Amino acid sequence: MAVIQxxxxxxxxxxRTYLPQVLAGLWTTWKRLLGPRVTLEYPEQRPQIxxxxxxxxxxxxxxxxxxxxxxxxxxxxxxxxxxxxITPGEIPADSPAAHVEKAPREFEINMLRCIYCGLCQEVCxxxxxxxxxxxxxxxxxxxxxxxxxxxxxxxxxxxxxxHLKWDRKRAAAERGNAH
Amino acid sequence: xxAFWNSLPHIVQLLVKGLAVICVIFPIAGASSMAERKVSAxxxxxxxxxRAIVPWFAWVPFLGRWLQRLGVFNLLAxxxxxxxxxxxxxxxxxxxxxMIAPLVAIVPAFTTVTVVPFGGYVDAAGRTVPLMLANVDxxxxxxxxxxxxxxxxxxxAGWASNSKYPFLGSLRASAQLVSYELSMTLSxxxxxxxxxxxxxxxxxxxxxxxxxxxxxxxxxxxxxIFLMPVSALIFLVALFAETNRLPFDMIESxxxxxxxxxxxxxxxxxxxxxxxxxxxxxxxxxxxxxLFFGGWNPLxWLPLAQVLAGLQHLTGWxxxxxxxxxxxxxxxxxxxxxxxxxxxxMWVRWTVPRFxxxxxxxxxxxxxxxxxxxxxxxIMAVIAFLQAPA
Lengths: 179, 390
Hints:
The structure holds two protein chains of two kinds. Chain A has helices at residues 13-16, 19-34, 74-78, 119-123, 149-156, 165-175; strands at 57-59, 84-90, 102-110, 129-131, 146-147.
């Protein structure tokens, strides 16, 4: 059954005048004319962003307000366009999060380089960097589009965290079974 | 007021009338471009242009918003843009002809309006007086003769542009217009055979045709589209071809010729071509309405004069038969019909794809022309039979 020969019927007289077809077409377009509009009027109406959308990368805090990033720099290593620059820093001993030991002193994502691949989110062991639903990014200067730590947290906000990994670790250490 | 008007020199009266008509046609032609965008948008399930607004209008509660959604201000912005943007003169064109081509387009387009009546009233003596710039006996011939002069602008533009696509477009234009002009002329002959009887003074005036569609009796009140549907169909199809509208827009065909003859034109010169095209459409629709759709009579078997007389009888106001009112009503009815035809042009444009060039030629020469000839012969025979001395 390789080739099916289809018989091509000659056009009828009505078809050769084009008129029935044109009239049928006019009827179709008339229905469309009165039909619903499908345009999304953008600035006023926003599209529904599906979950898992890879928008602008952001840094998030855990529900206790602790910054989740521990400046392990895995994202910096994995970033294909080298858009991420992290300056690691230590957490002072008097901080409530002193048991985490490390946090970024500065965290920069150059949005002019970012390709929204999401590898940083995938590689992050702390679930600290998230590509969220922000899809309209613009700025008046190049400097404005290099997001610093403050801006990244402002965009990221707080995400629910069921693990609270570091608090559990401290609790375990206090109970005596560190690992 | 009327006395003052009559005291003006004849030439001034004509000038004022002509300018008044142009002042109506130009905005309608412009508005048609916006209507085109809106109709295409609606058919495609979009809203079309609806953003531009002048701040003062934004303060008007509902009207401003409505006008904005209708795209009226987009139209104004568009016109302003075309007026003020730089008018480029490409280095490779033949400058003189390149410059005059848009004028050659717009002059015939506006000239044809002179012989197209757009309304009528009954004067004190009971005669129907058509509202038109020049009630000449060669009416329809003038329309055909002058309208086909418009093709020179396309040939001129295509040749003067000195570039391949415009040249191809203008070649197609000339071939297409020659092919369809024949059928178009043949299709209106039956109408004029019908209204002119041998022995009497004949006339090709379009106003006459309207009068003949407002006669008493079953056959008298019938519009010619019902009396001669084949003629009307041929005329309509040829009209689409003559005005270069889809499905016959071989001349512009954006897909394969960029823009046809006006590819090398920009800003105001281009918009002149545009206005000329829409004026052709307006005049063409007007002629179609006059010939086949009863002109300014509201319905078949219901001439305007009869409707207004009936209203006068019902309400008891003598105002209804006032020539001014009657003239105004007739113009409104006529314009409504013409605008519907313009809508029909757009409706068809966004429905039917473009014919291939060989299809255009085949339809023109092998279908429409024989059909027009057969139609002419049949109606001639019928007229001869009806008017034969018993």
